[in-house]
Amino acid sequence: MTGVDLLLWIPIVGTIALAIGTLIFAYWQLRQNQRLHSATTLLDLRERFYAARFVRARKQLSAWLLGGERGEEPDNWEVAIFFELLGSLTRSGILERRLVQNAFGTWITSYYTFITRPVNLFERWRAESNDQLIFADFEWLARRIIDQEHSLTPSPTFDQELLEEARYVLEGESRVSEAS
């Protein structure tokens, strides 16, 4: 290679390196924007979660789920629909699962535990409507959180501990002040 050839290749290699660097920076910037959007969306959802109307819905559903003889199902399933939305947004990658788990994990697993025990209402509704997608994203998210918690603290009594924690959370929900 002569000096002239080398002088031709330096700008070409420099341009390629600059293009690659620009693409890497653009990807990093896009990823940071996605994470920021995820966090902002999660904060907005937390605001909704603590709104008076939603607190009333949580209180009513938790009281019904804890009832021994549950009786007629409530009309308002806004809490489960909210968790279905969280599951959908998480499953599609819009929200980061770790952030969702930190912000709502205890409530997601607690409501899921009692919605699926002693009778799995999701399975019953799916069978009645012949629609296997009813609350599928809520269930997907709850199972991921429960499986992760179980893998972090393996225990032969994990199911019992999960049920006790869920009962504790829902008892608190059923007594929560709507002014909170």
Short description:
The chain has helices at residues 3-49, 52-66, 78-91, 97-115, 121-129, 136-152, 158-175. With 180 residues, the protein is an all-alpha fold.
Can you describe what's shown?
The chain is elongated. The chain is mainly alpha-helical and 180 residues long. It has helices at 3-49, 52-66, 78-91, 97-115, 121-129, 136-152, 158-175.
Instruction: Please tell me the overall pLDDT.
Output: 89
Give the tally of structural domains.
1
* Overall 3D form: elongated
Unreliable parts: none
> What radius of gyration results from the CA coordinates?
24 Å
User: What is the β-strand count?
Assistant: 0
Fraction of residues in H or I helices: over 70%
Broad structural category: mainly alpha
Give the N-to-C terminal Cα separation. Answer: 76 Å
H/E element order? HHHHHHH
Q: What proportion strand?
A: under 5%
Overview features:
180 residues; 7 helices; mainly alpha
Write the layout of secondary structure elements.
Blueprint (H helix, E strand, L loop, with lengths): L2 H47 L2 H15 L11 H14 L5 H19 L5 H9 L6 H17 L5 H18 L5
